[in-house]
Design brief:
66% helix, mainly alpha, single chain, Serine Threonine Protein Phosphatase 5, Tetratricopeptide repeat, 0% strand
């Protein structure tokens, strides 16, 4: 039963990828994918003992639906064209500065940042890849559609980078967040909903986030997501404790920098609601 639901979630993720390609501007140049990825029968976020691979096949279009290349300066299109030619010629390293130049002038093109992060990951430039994935996550949390759906893949990659760097805290943190996001994805599709399966994912997310919290106590981010998970499990008392711990971490140690802007706003809203119930 569990494998059937995981397969259904994977199909839904692939469907979102197809939606991204359909909605992208047909006038923009397409960047070839850094390398082919293959879906597995179980999300890598759910496997803590085996090396994980990409959750779903990834195909990034160069220009999103939000900005037509016809309205962009010619230099931006040139950067994408040069990056495309470099990748097609097998020179991935040469494409990186062109993609960065594009993003410097056009930072709202978040899927290009995801493409750059993936390219850097394939090139084993893990520190740079980590920064790009983290920036993409902060940007994508402000959006809906394909960018938001791609968050699961990005947390998978950050989990893999953390494992490579022997960073147990980050590995548990990103696996926990990714499992939590899988429940969000499932709940957004009525045909994929299953209360028992969702609860199983939430419990696994809870275990990973607790391990992250044990590895680095008093960090805001694991406590914030512990609050999110406990709330979904309808456990108000541990949720309140996790929320207080997240708030204290921000107020006492200035740990707000560890939260994305969207996470900071949600933390402030949740704290205000708890202190002043409607």
């Amino acid at each position: 039963m569990k494998r059937r639901h995981v397969a259904l979630l994977l199909c839904l993720c692939v469907g979102c990828r197809a939606l991204q390609s359909e909605r992208a501007s047909p006038d923009g140049p397409d960047l070839p994918p850094p390398a082919p990825a293959h879906a597995t029968d179980e999300p890598p976020l759910a496997r803590s003992s085996q090396p994980s691979s990409a959750l779903v096949p990834v195909r990034h279009d160069a220009v999103s639906e939000e900005t037509s290349p016809l309205l962009a300066p010619a230099s931006l299109v040139d950067d994408l064209t040069r990056a495309t030619r470099a990748i097609e010629a097998g020179d991935q390293a040469a494409a990186v500065p062109y993609l960065r130049s594009y993003l410097d002038l056009h930072p709202d093109q978040v899927m290009i940042r995801a493409y750059l992060a993936e390219l850097l990951w394939k090139m084993k430039r893990l520190g740079e890849s980590q920064q790009s994935f983290e920036q993409f996550i902060a940007d994508a949390q402000e959006r809906s559609g394909p960018a938001r759906t791609h968050l699961i893949h990005c947390h998978t990659r950050l989990m893999e980078i953390a494992r490579n760097q022997n960073d147990a805290y980050s590995e548990h943190l990103h696996r926990g967040i990714g499992l939590y996001l899988l429940t969000e994805l499932q709940n957004s599709h009525p045909e994929a909903r299953d209360t028992v399966f969702t609860e199983q994912l939430l419990c696994r997310a809870l275990g990973e986030l607790k391990k992250a919290n044990e590895a680095k106590p008093n960090q805001a981010r694991p406590n914030w997501y512990l609050y999110e998970v406990w709330t979904k499990l309808a456990q108000s008392q541990p949720a309140a404790i996790a929320l207080r711990n997240a708030r204290d971490a921000v107020e006492l140690s200035g740990a707000a920098s560890a939260l994305t802007p969207a996470e900071q706003r949600r933390l402030l809203f949740a704290s205000a609601t708890q202190r002043h119930p409607l």
